[in-house]
Every structure is written in structure tokens, then in C-alpha cells.
Amino acid sequence: MDLEGLRFTAELTEGAGARIVTFRSDLAGGGVRMAKSFEVSREGYEVVMTVGLSGEKAAAFAAGRRLELELGAGRGLLPAPAPGFSAMLDRVSRVIITGGGVSAVGDDTRDPTPLGAGDWVGFRGRFWAVLLRPDEASVLEPRSGASAALVTAGEPGRLSWRYTFYSGPLESRVLTRADPGLERLLFSGLWSWLRALSLALLFLLHGLTALVGQPGLAIVALAASVKVLLLPLTLVAERWQEQVNATHARLEPGLDAIKAAHRGEERARRTLGLYRVEGVHPLYTLRSLPGVLIQLPVFVAVFDMLAEDFDLSRVAFLWIQDLSRPDELLRLPVCLPFFGCYLNLLPFLMSGVSLAALLRFRSSALTPSLARRQRRNLTGMTLLFFLLFYTFPAGMVLYWTSTNAFQLATQEVRRRLAGG
Q1: HEC string for 233-261
Q2: What mean pLDDT do residues 29-51 have?
Q3: Of 53, 81, 44, 290, which is closest to residue 167 (Cα–Cα)?
Q4: Does 111 lie in the same domain as 65?
């Protein structure tokens, strides 16, 4: 039956920690009364809804029926279309949170999903979530459209149902207050050990924010802190890279001569022969790869943390109006495919600092030709990073710009100490 067509009377009461509004209506036929009660938390983001049937005919009315509760994401949770790669960050997904973790429910799912008592189901975006927890075991039945899920609950003879809603930010303190299990939503897309690293970095960022008083400055301080913490790994990576550069420089004359005189299988055979004579493994260039791989988890954890940190939402810094969005310095006369409708200044600063660090870098092990080739390759990587980061949130771009600036400063200090 359509409950939306009923006429309800409302009663408002005040509790110590919540406001309670109760709606009552007599159902058609008489002898059955429905009451819907909403208990709205004064301090949190939880709403407890209780639905009950009463009256002499209530048991007969409920026989063979079930209560269906439909939950939608709502327009407020759905983000505006984003340009470029930033669209990856603003997706809204259906999720189920159980004791075993967080799982996504695809829009194409058609099979009912059982829910245990205390399991949560609903929608999450980048910063906000709309979730529902039934008090009893239930079944999630998909409905058409990506923004709705149907929770089905009921047993023969049941006359009351109770649900808890959470409609609020993805922020650790308020999530834990509603239910400690909801904290699993933070960085749920990462592996457990990588998620732990993101949580540690989030703790560090919030500590730095409390120290310096401004989230934008805290991001700069975070870049410096991570740079210092990774210094031992960075020194190892640089030493391995220098060894690869020295080997490449030693092999360069022989490799150039082979490339000039031979082709095809003969070139490959002579190249392997040169490696054997020089005592070099053919995969020697991979020696520098571990130096990158050991820093990659930190890179991923930092950017996932900055993408989902609710405390950066709507926070200004310098000319940036919102650290959780691109800096949007000026609106363009026309909207450009991929780049959007605004001129973002930070990606240009980031690329400029990267190019400055690249041009100022000197390796004594590289020959001039190898140095030119390395600069060409790194310039291509800088361009790729510019395209990747152009539409990313300003907080993420600010972090990478700061990291590059500290790299450039470190290079200059080393040059001065070395007398260069």
C-alpha cells in the first residue's frame, strides 16, 4: 500500500540528547494505526526511525505483508560533473559495511543481498555518506537507477521495525560516534596496510594543522616532513640510480658503435656480448626501480588521504578558495574539453618547479648525451604530471608543488656544499 497518500498527525517531544517527532495515521478499513517516529540527534548526524502498527486488526493486517524502505543518495550527495581526471574522485557508490569491511554494490547488481543485524548499507561520495542500519537481519533488493537501494525487512507477525540513519561527513570522529564500524569507510579503497599508512599521514596532517593553524600551511609542512622521513630511502635510491648511470655511461660508446654497425638479431647478439664482456647483467637498468617502488606506497597513501580529508573541504589558502577543488584562478572565456572552464595556476607552478629542478640537476656519472636524453624523458614525465594534476584538488597539487620545491632546494644546497 502507498503510505505517502495517508494523512498523519504530528507530535513533537524533546529528549535529553534528541528531538523526537512522531507521525500517526489510521489505515483504511479501521482497526489499524501506524506510527512513524524519528529521533534526531542533537549533537551527531544520526536519526533513529521506528515504524509500528497497533490496533485490534494490526496482526491480521501485517500477515503476508512486509515493510519496504527505499534509500536514495539524493541530489545533494551527487557532485557536479568534473573535468579531466578529477572525475575519478567524485564518484558516488553503493556500499555495504559489515564486520568484515566495506564492499561496493555495483549498479548492475540484480540479486538480493542479505544484511545482518547491525550491517550498514547506503551511499558514499568523496566527503559525505547517507547510510542505513536495520536492527534485524534484512535483505537488500536492487531497484532501477544508480541512486536508490531498497531494504526489505519483515517476519510473519512482526508489528514494529527500527532503523538508524547516518547522513553526515566522512570524518573519523563523527563516524566513530555513530558506530565504530563506520570508520572503515575512510580510505576503504586501499589495502589494509596502505590504509593504515593513510590514517597515520592524516593524523600527522591534523597535528601539523593544529601546530601551524592553517590547513594549507600544514600541507606544505607535511611535504617537508615526508621528505625528511623518506630521506634514508631517497639516499639509497639516488645511490642505486648513480650506479645505473655510471654503468650506462661506461657502456655507451660500445652500444653506440653496435647500433651504428648492426641491426636485428646481430645487434642483439653483439649487445649481449658487450654486457658479458663488461660483466653487466642485461637488466641492470632495473636496479634503480626498487628506489622508486619503495617510495610509491607513500605517494599513493598521501594522495588518497588528501583527496578524502573532509577538513580540507571549503578551506581557503592564498588565492585558492577551496583546497578540495582545483584552485580556479580565472574563468576561461570558453570551456575546454578535459581542462574545464577555469585557469588553474597551481599546476603551472608545479610544472615550473619540476622543470627548474630538472634543469639544475647534475650527475657526474652521465655523459652529455645521456644527460640530454634523461632531461628529455623527465620533461615528458613532467608534461604527463601536468595533465594528470591539472584538474585535481588544489590540496593535492599544493603538496606535490611543495615536494618539488623542497627537492630543488635540496639540490641547490648540495651544489653549494660541493662548490658547484
Answers
A1: HHHHHHHHHHHHHHHHHHHHHHHHHHHHH
A2: 90
A3: 44
A4: yes
Domain end position, chosen among 155, 186, 217: 186
Burial label for 187, CB within 10 Å (0-12, 13-18, 19+), is buried
List 320's β-bridge partners, or say none. Answer: 317
Residues near 243 by Cβ (< 8 Å), separated by ≥ 6? 287, 288
Distance in angstroms (rounded) separating the CA atoms of residues 233 and 46: 45
Q: What is the CATH number of the domain that holds 79?
A: 2.70.98.30
Question: Cα(207)–Cα(217) distance, rounded to whole angstroms?
Answer: 12
C-alpha 71/C-alpha 96 separation (Å) is 13
Based on the domain organization, do 182 and 304 belong to the same domain? no
Q: What is the reported pTM?
A: 0.85
Residue 114, classified by CB atoms within 10 Å of its CB into exposed (0-12), middle (13-18) or buried (19+), is exposed
The three cell numbers locating residue 329 = 584562478
Residue 42 CB neighbours (<10 A): 10
Total residue length of the chain = 420
Q: Please give the Cα distance from 359 to 372 (Å, whole number).
A: 10
Same domain, 130 and 221: no
Residues whose CB is less than 8 angstroms from the CB of residue 257 and which lie 6 or more positions away in sequence, other chains included: none
Model pLDDT for residues 104-122, shown as the tens digit of each residue:
877 666 677 888 888 998 8
By residue range, what is the domain housing residue 162? Answer: 3-186
